[in-house]
Design a protein that fits this description.
six-stranded mixed beta sheet; elongated; alpha/beta; six-stranded parallel beta sheet; 42% helix
C-alpha cells in the first residue's frame, strides 16, 4: 500500500477507532500495550508515518522554533541558520525557516501564521521595513517568545544578539582615511533601520574625528534590487566622484565592483572599497576584497541559547537586552593605497 496512507485508513485496517490509533502515537498511558504494539506493527507494514507535527499542536509544545530571515542569498544568513539549527537540535527541537524578502507585509503575514501553536519560539532578523511593528505583539499575546539576531526593531522589547557594528564601521572608515581617502561614500539599504543606522553612525564618527566633512550627497540609501542599486551607485560615482566606498551590505559592494568595471575605474587606485561581508572567497577576488566579517554562526548560537533560556524559564522574555559580538576586520588590497 502507498506510504501516504491516512490515519483513518490505518484505523479501518485494524478495526479500531481513529482516537485509539492516535493515542498509540502520542504515548498515552490509557492504551493497552498489546494494542499499541499491534498498531505500530501495522503502521510499519503499511508505511504509515504519523503526523507528529499535528499531534504536537494538540499538546502543550510543538518542539519547533521558527527562523525568520530577510533573504536566503547571503552567506551571513546561511551561517547563522547553521548555528540556530545546531542549538535547536541539541535541545530536541526542529526548525522552520521563513523568508520575508525584506518585506514588512510578508513578515506580518508570517507572524500571523505562527501564533496558533505552530511554533514555541521565534528567532528573527528583521525585514528592515516599517516604523511600527504592532503585529509582533501577536507573539506576546500568544506567549511565543522572540529573539532577534543581527537586525532588530527599536520598538520591540526583547533580547537581540548582533555585531559591534558601530565600532566596526568606525574602524573600517578610519582605515580608508588612513589610506588617503578623503571622499568616502557610505552605501546602505534602509539606513534608518538598526544595522544601517548604527553602521552609518560609526562611519560619520570616523569622519568627524578625522576632521572630514559629512556630506549627505555621499550617503546613498538604495535598494536590494541589483538593477536599481547598480544605477544608483553608478550615478553616485559619476556625480560625486568618491575616492572610496564603504558598503554596509555585501550586495552593494558587488554592484560597486560591476559599476567600477563598466566605468573603467580600477580598485583601489581610483576607488577604494570595503564592505560588511561573510564571503568566503573575498581573498580570491581581484583585488582581494576588504571586509568586516561578522560572527554569523556564533550569533545564531547565542540568539537561540537566549530563546531556550526564555522557553525553559531561566530568564524572562519581553525584556530589551542587546548582546554585541565582535566582528573581524580583514583589510586587503581593495582598500589599501598602492
Amino acid at each position: 500500500m502507498a506510504s501516504n496512507i491516512t490515519i483513518v485508513e490505518l484505523a479501518s485496517a485494524l478495526g479500531l477507532s481513529k482516537s485509539t490509533v492516535s493515542r498509540a502515537f502520542r504515548d498515552n498511558q490509557d492504551i493497552n500495550p498489546r494494542t499499541k504494539e499491534r498498531i505500530l506493527e501495522k503502521a510499519k507494514e503499511l508505511g504509515f508515518s504519523p503526523n507528529l507535527y499535528a499531534s504536537n499542536l494538540r499538546g502543550s509544545k510543538s518542539q519547533t522554533i521558527a527562523i525568520i530571515i530577510p533573504e536566503f542569498g547571503n552567506k551571513f544568513f546561511s551561517q547563522a541558520i547553521k548555528g540556530i539549527e545546531w542549538v535547536a537540535r541539541s535541545n530536541g527541537y526542529h526548525v522552520l525557516i521563513y523568508v520575508t524578502d525584506h518585506n514588512a507585509v510578508k513578515e506580518a503575514e508570517i507572524i500571523q501564521t505562527l501564533v496558533n501553536g505552530r511554533v514555541d519560539g521565534v528567532i528573527m532578523s528583521g525585514s528592515g521595513e516599517g516604523n511600527s511593528h504592532e503585529y509582533l505583539k501577536l507573539l506576546e499575546y500568544n506567549k511565543v517568545p522572540i529573539v532577534f539576531f543581527d537586525r532588530y526593531y527599536e520598538d520591540v522589547p526583547t533580547a537581540c544578539v548582533t555585531g559591534n557594528d558601530f565600532d566596526s564601521s568606525y574602524e573600517a572608515t578610519k582605515h580608508l582615511i588612513e589610506n588617503d581617502a578623503k571622499r568616502i561614500a557610505y552605501l546602505a539599504v534602509n539606513k534608518d533601520v538598526s544595522i544601517g543606522r548604527i553602521r552609518m553612525e560609526g562611519y560619520k564618527k570616523a569622519l568627524h574625528d578625522a576632521a572630514l566633512p559629512i556630506d549627505d550627497r555621499l550617503i546613498l540609501d538604495t535598494s536590494n534590487e541589483a538593477v536599481i542599486n547598480y544605477e544608483d551607485i553608478r550615478e553616485l560615482i559619476l556625480n560625486e566622484k568618491p575616492d572610496a566606498i564603504f558598503a554596509s551590505v555585501e550586495r552593494l559592494a558587488m554592484s560597486t565592483i560591476r559599476v567600477a568595471k563598466a566605468l573603467n575605474l580600477t580598485i583601489p587606485n581610483d576607488l577604494k572599497l570595503i564592505c560588511f561581508s561573510c564571503l568566503d572567497i573575498a581573498d580570491m577576488l581581484q583585488p582581494a576584497l576588504s571586509v568586516v566579517k561578522q560572527p554569523a554562526y556564533e550569533m545564531g548560537i547565542q540568539a537561540t541559547t537566549q530563546l531556550f533560556d526564555i522557553l525553559c524559564g531561566r530568564k524572562q522574555g519581553g525584556v530589551r537586552e542587546i548582546v554585541f559580538l565582535d566582528s573581524e576586520l580583514i583589510f586587503q588590497a581593495s582598500s589599501t593605497k598602492a
